[in-house]
Amino acid sequence: MKVPHHTLRREIHGVPVFLEQSVALPLVTVTVARRGGATLDPGGNEGASRLLSRLSRRTAGGREFQAIEEELDRLGASLGSDVSYSSIALSGATIARSVEPFVALVADAAGRPSLDPNEFERLRRETRAEIVEGLDNDRALAHRALRRVLYPNHPYSRTASGTLSSIERVAYPALLQHDELTRRRDNLVLGMSGDIDEDAALRLAEQIISAVPETPSETNVLEDPTIPPGRRLVIVDKPDRAQTQILIGLDGAKSSDPDHTALHVAMTVFGGTFSSRLMQQIRVERGWSYGAYATLPIDQCRQSLTLWTFPSKDDAAACIRLKLELLEALVERGITARELAFARKSLIRSHAFSIDTASKRLGLALDTSLMNLPDDYYDGYERRVAAVTLDDTAAALRQRIDPTKLVIAVVGSAKELEPQLRAAVPDIQSVEVIPFDSPDL
Amino acid sequence: MAADHRPVHRGTVDFGPSLKIERFVYPNGLTLLCCEDHSAKVLSFHTWIRVGSRHERPGKTGLAHLFEHLMFGETKNVGPGEYDHRLEEAGAETNASTWLDFTQFTVNAPASALPLVIELESERMQHLALTEKQVSTEKDVVANERRYRVDDDIEGAISEMLWSAAFTKHSYHWPTIGWMPDIQGFCPEDCATFYRTYYAPNNATLVVVGDFKLATLVERVGKNYALIPSSVLPIEDVEPEPPQLSERRLEIDKPTPTEKLVLGYRAPALGDNDHIALGVLAEVLSGGRPSRLLRRLVHELEIAADARMLVGPFRDPSLIEVSITARGDHHAEELLQVLDEEFDRIRSTPPSAEEIERALNRIELGLLAGLDAVDGKASTIGFYETLLGRPAAAFERLEAMQQCTASDLLRVARRFLQPESRTVIFVRRTPEATGEQNTVST
């Protein structure tokens, strides 16, 4: 099945503008994104890009923070700031009747923030409190620990929100410098979706773009990260846990890898559906974990393949051991013809849910531009999946997945878990224990 | 003799500015609500069963939720794992949820998969196989889910504590997921009895939203569901909760870096007219940064990281839950003092016209944003149909909210934000969670 794309692409002052029209609901979404996200944080100052983006939103056009919030509520609008590895985006939605004043506010946030230093200090305090609050989220803790150990010395080791200690290190003058370097017109990508016509959208896009300085950007080239050899274990030590959170990270793939689609299909078989090997073996057969998943995200550079389960502390060691055995069997013997046929059909047919709303279609168009994906990355998705063969998946698994080179991140009581995990998981090269409330996590 | 599968058309209602809901009722009592939306080649097929944890009894808590899990197992004509496998192969995704008043099953599928969806959904409503192995494994999975969502989750654990303290008679006392010993004690017979009683067409509503032809859908549902017999539904044995005459206070230690304050005030049932005004009042108090609680606690005093207020959307009177997370070393008592000041203020001075306007715009935006995809529309229709018998009630409530006056808000503030009838939980930090620690490597 092929649903035609309706995304309009235009350029204003060299800035790509995407528009997805839909009159289904009286809503309009607006996204103003800048290329380069958390990976552009100055060394040791992780979280700086997110602080800057939020500060821009909170000081749009020199307004007071509370005045902005009140204005948004009056309009029936929301505006958030999202920072990923590849982009920084101001994204929001408004009831269609308020689109003009909403875009004026967005333009002020994107192009004319006052970056008031007092508001910066307030934001820093709030961010600190949010990071502390996040210590209650065990999965997020596992994710932070995994990235830190998986990719030492690469920007992918960072978290967009920063750590307690890195947030403290962000100095206001350095933040202004970061703004100067990144708030450039040629960095922008714009998108709108919903109940707005083309003329109005382009006129409003022009309003946003012309608010952003024209100075050319510096080019930043990010190298792919490398994972050090060996199996490394990191335990986030947290008391009184009945259950663990376990993430296993390995080298993954990027969209320009010729075997990326084949690996994506193989990982769908391994941990991408309820019928997958991981889910069947860990949840259905053994009842160990409510969920068992494998994810293979894409980004500018090669991202990690991640396996996620959350068994009780008593099943944690056996669960990790089983996952590694299943992974080794996958690499050694590949997937079956029946599994391949299933995965291809499932992925091709479910693609309908990636493009079923205007806001989702806009999201794909923006991703394509921000992550420098091939133009046909999403339009050609079904064709590429359909072309994957068993040989392709076998070759991709052998080429990309190395079960001897990985990081296992576990949240739980280190005293209880460490001896069990050392005994159960073969070839552990190193163990690191990080307190869950470490200021560097 | 072939069963009569022709339904009666029971009316059409508008659903928002451009969609309509058609209601059909089949001879065996099954209700079908159809909402054609041809904006994409997809559909959402929901099955809402009017059974939730409110229908359980002490010693057998969590059965409705366990049953939600079991519904994904084998049936007479569909082998183990086949349900998910066939739907996933068709490009569909499935999900389910159980709450106090209902259990709900979702299949989001490409439009072309409609015949398969109807075949499999009707099959599991009539032919579920409840084997010893299936029940045993699923009990383990639910126990794991309980550890994940309650035992190791601060919010889950505190919410469970709040409801069990606030309700002493009513079945809202126990958690939907059930107490751990009850989960571990279920046998296949418990499940079979529950299935025969509640999983019947006269206790269910199908909601289908998306790209389909109405006549084909109605015909196919009839053919597949017509032979399922209706059941004699038991009289609901729910005790009303007696009035709470004095405040209840509890304290708990948790491995959390900051103190928390959680309160439950008495809330009216979803169908009570005052529930509508309370929804607006909650938005005035805690909806977004300019709201009274966030402005005071987070922005001005900087003693809280977050504050939320939710009016329980349930069939019977329930709770207005207020959750506040302290910042740094601030104590829950400080949060309570400010909360009391703000609630005193709202009970004495009504919100301004501007505060009400902002709250209403936020509510309207939230409703529209939730209806972007077919699944959101089906959820909204199914929820209000199951709770109120009015599938388009989301829009009716929005209209009613837009008629609310400052007097309405003042009245509900005085009626429901009563300290005498609230339950308060102070969450303290366990000593291990407060000390500075260093990274250890080996």
Architecture overview:
The complex is a heterodimer of chains A (441) and B (442). Chain A has two domains: 8-209, Cytochrome Bc1 Complex, Chain A, domain 1 (2-Layer Sandwich); 230-435, 2-Layer Sandwich (Cytochrome Bc1 Complex, Chain A, domain 1). Chain A has helices spanning 48-58, 65-75, 99-111, 117-133, 138-150, 164-169, 172-182, 198-209, 260-271, 277-285, 316-333, 337-350, 358-370, 381-387, 390-400, 414-424; strands at 8-12, 15-21, 27-35, 77-83, 87-95, 188-194, 230-237, 245-251, 292-295, 304-309, 405-412, 428-435. Chain A is 43% helix and 19% strand. The longest helix of chain A has 18 residues, at 316-333. Chain A has a six-stranded mixed β-sheet, with helices on both faces. Chain A has a six-stranded mixed β-sheet with strand order 9-10-8-11-7-12, sandwiched between helices. Chain A starts with 7 loop residues before the first strand and ends in a 6-residue tail after the last strand. Chain B is α+β, with helices and mostly antiparallel strands and 442 residues long. Chain B folds into two domains: 8-225, 2-Layer Sandwich (Cytochrome Bc1 Complex, Chain A, domain 1), CATH 3.30.830; 248-430, Metalloenzyme, LuxS/M16 peptidase-like (Cytochrome Bc1 Complex, Chain A, domain 1). Chain B contains 15 helices and 13 strands. The termini of chain B are far apart. Chains A and B meet through helix 2, strand 5, helix 4, helix 10 and helix 12 of A and helix 2, helix 4, helix 10, helix 12 and strand 13 of B.
State the gist of this model.
With 441 residues, chain A is an alpha+beta fold. Chain A has helices spanning 48-58, 65-75, 99-111, 117-133, 138-150, 164-169, 172-182, 198-209, 260-271, 277-285, 316-333, 337-350, 358-370, 381-387, 390-400, 414-424, and strands at 8-12, 15-21, 27-35, 77-83, 87-95, 188-194, 230-237, 245-251, 292-295, 304-309, 405-412, 428-435.
